[in-house]
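Quick entry, no commentary yet.
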Amino acid sequence: MSTVVKTETRVHEFPRPAEIGAVPSNSQSFFNRELSLLEFHARVLEEALDDRNPLLERLKFLSIFSSNLDEFFMIRVSGLKEELEHANIISPDGMTPAEQLAKTRERILGLVKEQARCLREEILPKLKDAGLSVIPYSSLSLHEKENLKDYCMEKVFPI
């Protein structure tokens, strides 16, 4: 046997959202979204620069930095370039898309320069000292190229 209990349904009214532009923004109160993300990526790069970290961990941080930067260009930079077509777009921190692109370019150039220096002058020489060398594909024998191709087809491409 079941019992049915009748209850009243209450409807709550939510406040209406504020109109866009109703609250003036103070650009001094906001960080730039793109520059802030680049600072996060810079902290990843700092881990690669820290010689207290194990060598292969440092190499992994360089790789993560590169991957993050690729995504930054695909998403953030392409979005800013699309916004260039609309002259009246201003970010919450008061910058135009062109200004944001200029500042991000300036920051990225310094980060990439430091990344390349770290790889070239620190990581690769230390890897070589440890018996690991990065060599060009063209220097491999035919047998090594076939083994590498088989490995990639079986292990890498399926992922």
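second:
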Amino acid sequence: MIRINLLGAAKPKRGKKPVIETTGGVSVVFAGTLIMLALAVGGNSYYYWNLQRGKAKTESELHKAEVENRRLADVKASYLEREKVKDNYKRRVDVIDKLRQDQLGPVNLLSMIGKTVDSTDEVWLYLMTDSGTNVELKGAALSVHAVADLMRNLQNTGYFKTVELKETVQDAKIKDVQAFEFTLECEKGITGPTASQPPPDAPGKKKT
């Protein structure tokens, strides 16, 4: 027996469900993929923009640091130049002070010795030798007591650390009065008058 399907549609076989094709699932997957791709591109763009902004900020800070370094280098150069000028002036002042001390030192010493001898009775000085640390004095006195007075007066000036009697002999050339020749060794001390200070008035009484 022959059956003819006049509707033109195939009759489904028994035991099998019909397959329904749809495009809705494909659209959802495609849309999700687009969203993920957009988020990835946006994230990368933001990260790149953030890096560029950090780079620009770093370059700006580096430029400021370079400008500040150049300014400090100029300040340092000016400071070193002023220090050099100051050192030159200081050396010149030190040289002048040393020359003044070298000049006034013997003058003060002579003035102090002269005042001390002049203030001691019956004592005359005819030779003084300055060796730097010691001063040797040679002179004559009418008595050993006058020599002792001179030693005490020299010690009291504060210029000498020690004053020692090296020798004393009676001068036989002087017949009318008794006279003694003496030699004193005076060691300079650190408390004596400096070149910038006048020597103190010698102790003792003035000769009449």
